[in-house]
Structures are given as structure tokens and as C-alpha cells.
Amino acid sequence: MSNAEKTKLEPTAGELIRKMKMVGEGCIKMDDDCVMRSFGGPPERVVLDAVGFSPAQIKAMLDMQPWSQEIEDLYRGVDGRKVVDHEALYNPPDSYRTRMWTAEEFAEKKKEMARRNKELMERMQKEREEGVDVDAKYGCSRKQADYDSIPKRDKSGYEFTNMNSTSALWFRD
Q1: Is the pLDDT of residue 135 over 60?
Q2: How far apart are CA 49 and CA 35, in angstroms?
Q3: Mean pLDDT over the full length of the chain
Q4: Above 90 in pLDDT, residue 160?
Q5: What is the spatial distance between Cα 71 and Cα 85, in angstroms, rounded to a whole number?
Q6: Number of CB atoms found within 10 A of residue 34's CB
Q7: Which of 29, 18, 160, 169 is nearest to 96 (CA)?
Q8: For residue 90, with 0-12 CB atoms within 10 Å meaning exposed, 13-18 middle and 19 or more buried, which class applies?
Q9: CB within 8 A of 131, min separation 6: which ones?
Q10: Predicted structure pTM score
């Protein structure tokens, strides 16, 4: 089976995210290990679910945000499906966890998000009335970039893959 055929068989990033266990005030986050984790609400932020993303799923997600060389280099060649240890998936380092908020900070952030969402809805309504295709302009699934997620090789054939922001792995096919 070719890589293209395998890619067609795997679920999309959106399908994986929709199947994850989540709670109302929780959040999801993907770090440089390319594992998408859902976290419970504040203040604990325990990992509820974790799914490793394939390079194709990572690329599809990255392509929906503006291009950045730093982001492309960070995720180049990384395959989150290789993270299989339960401890690594569900008890990641603190740097992979979402920020811990106090109850007061969280309440303030909720107010701020509600205000920003209201402003966005009002702006979208105004633009819609002016004839702007707001679905195309603000749609979450619009492609904004074309990331290159294929590992780079040096002249000797060694492949460089960024495993995380502090270490890298060199290997040869």
C-alpha cells in the first residue's frame, strides 16, 4: 500500500479531535512531540485524552494557520504516533501542560474571551452586510499555508528530525 493510500485511510486531524474526551472548560494543546492532549478544566489541568498525530495530520493542521519558518522547523519530520508510552502521553512534562490559572484569573479570561467573541461576531455581521464572504474569511478550515513536513537530509544522507525544542535525533535510512 502506498503512502498516499495510507493517508486516505487515516482519520483527519479534525476527526481525531472531535473524538477526544473533553470537558466544557478544558482545552486541547499540541506540543512539539505532536501529541494532541485534552486537558480538564482549571485549576488541575489533568490530561483527559492524548492522540499522536501523523505527519500528514500535522501538516493539515499547520496549513490552516499562517506560515512560519520556526513552526515548520519545529514540526518537520515529527510523528506523534511514535509516542506510545502511557506515562509520556498522560503525564507530560510541565512545559507541555497548559498554564495553571487561579479562579480569579480564569474568571477574568472568560470575561475577556466573551468580550472578544462579541466584538468578532459584530464585525462579522457588519462585513456580511457589506457583502464580504465571512465564511471564507473566518472559516477554521481555510488553508493559509503549505508547510513542508518532510525531514531534511544532509549531503551524506543523514536525516534531521526535530524531536522537541531542546533535542534532535539524527538517523540514517
Answers
A1: yes
A2: 10
A3: 79
A4: no
A5: 25
A6: 26
A7: 29
A8: middle
A9: none
A10: 0.65
Residue in this structure with the C-alpha cell 519545529, named with its chain if needed: 74
Task: Report residue 138 as a C-alpha cell.
Answer: 473566518
Residue 139 has pLDDT above 70, yes or no: no
Give Cβ neighbours of residue 77 (< 8 Å, ≥ 6 apart).
55, 149, 150, 151, 152, 159, 160, 161, 162
Which residue's entry shows cell 528530525? 161
Output the nine-digit C-alpha cell for 126.
457588519
3-class secondary structure per residue, the chain:
CCHHHHHHHCCCHHHHHHHCCCCCCCEEEECCCCEEEEECCCCCCCEEEEEECCHHHHHHHHCCCCCCHHHHHHHCCCCHHHCCCHHHHHCCCHHHCCCCCCHHHHHHHHHHHHHHHHHHHHHHHHHHHCCCCHHHHHCCCCCCCCCCCCCEECCCCCEEEEEECCEEEEECC
pLDDT higher than 60, residue 167: no
